[in-house]
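Lecture notes, continued. The same structure-token format from the folding unit now serves as the input rather than the output. Read the line below as a description of shape only.
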């Protein structure tokens, strides 16, 4: 019999406190920034799903191609009985893994988006009658405590989401993931790869404007949760490639000089005309870099697979 359990690891007011702290800190500094996790309310999660279907947004298709081709090898190499997925979203591509892992007992999707977890979990237990699904509403950067489930444990972090962490944050995050693993457990990591600038920029600035709407959704979240008066039309969506850092940045550029009031923080924030608020970085990777970051976290990268066109990589790293 399948089971579906959702656990909130932090009380709801802790989430609001975290948003307040991020807005206060991020909008009072130069340049202004907000962390990308605040895109993902129910509407933001829906917009992200639309992004994954856009012609310009190749990462989802490329990663799915690798999963389809390599799921059996991943199953053989890990023998996983518990699959933990960080930033699981719709868990759509994960189905290829769930279908391929013969010994799987429990799936633990972890996400800040309660709506995404609930929808995905309900669909999955209908499709997998013997699977236990234990969803965690949690921030994967916040020191996770996982339920006690049978090993070996495979932690999956797909979609290139690791690229949203800055290099120092990534090192801290990977070290914390390592503490979730015992010898013989593994990390399956999806990383988007460095490539032609125009392909990268188009993936974050699609012709239909879905990514622009996703980017501006963070303003709607701050309006709703903190009573702010951002007008999303006052901002232009910007996606640019930083060749030195090898990351894409998404920004929101003020179309004119303006002031935004945020009553819950008793704050008024001035934007100069053309001033930009950074909402996301999305780092792109190379094989040697990923291998090195894994080693620094105490993990040994044993497999590196790319799609046919070499756009995206999945790597498997073992805890020894
Ligand atoms: C780029 S989407 C990827 C979704 C899915 N894994 C895929 O590959 O299509 C990032 C996902 O991570 C979640 N997320 C972002 N930051 C998070 C955080 N700090 N803690 C937990 N989940 C987070 C979002 O809600 C979203 O579902």
């Amino acid at each position: 019999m399948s089971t579906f359990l959702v656990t909130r690891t932090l009380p709801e007011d802790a989430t609001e406190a975290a948003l307040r702290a991020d807005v206060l800190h991020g909008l009072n500094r130069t340049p202004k920034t907000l962390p990308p996790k605040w895109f993902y309310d129910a509407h933001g999660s829906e917009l992200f799903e639309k992004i994954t279907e856009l012609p310009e947004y190749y990462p989802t298709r490329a990663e799915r191609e690798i999963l389809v081709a390599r799921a059996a090898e991943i199953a053989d190499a890990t023998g996983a009985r518990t699959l933990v997925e960080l930033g699981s979203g719709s868990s759509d591509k994960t189905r290829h893994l769930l279908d391929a892992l013969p010994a799987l007992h429990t799936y633990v999707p972890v996400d800040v988006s309660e709506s995404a977890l609930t929808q995905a979990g309900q669909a999955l237990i209908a499709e997998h009658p013997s699977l236990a699904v234990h969803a965690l509403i949690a921030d994967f950067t916040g020191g996770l405590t996982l339920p006690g489930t049978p090993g070996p444990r495979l932690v999956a972090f797909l979609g290139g989401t690791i690229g949203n962490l800055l290099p120092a944050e990534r090192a801290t995050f990977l070290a914390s993931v390592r503490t979730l693993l015992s010898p013989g457990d593994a990390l399956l990591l999806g990383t988007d790869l460095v490539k032609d600038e125009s392909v990268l920029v188009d993936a974050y600035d699609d012709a239909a404007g879905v990514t622009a709407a996703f980017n501006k959704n963070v303003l709607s979240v701050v309006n709703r949760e903190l009573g702010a008066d951002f007008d999303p039309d006052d901002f232009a969506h910007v996606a640019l490639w930083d060749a030195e850092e090898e990351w894409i940045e998404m920004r929101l550029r003020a179309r004119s000089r303006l002031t935004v009031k945020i009553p819950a923080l008793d704050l008024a924030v001035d934007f100069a005309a053309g001033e930009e608020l950074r909402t996301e970085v999305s780092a792109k990777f190379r094989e040697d870099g990923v291998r090195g970051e894994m080693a620094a976290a105490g993990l040994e990268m044993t497999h590196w697979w790319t799609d046919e066109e070499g756009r995206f990589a999945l790597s498997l790293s073992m805890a020894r």
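Point for the exam: The chain has a mean pLDDT of 97.
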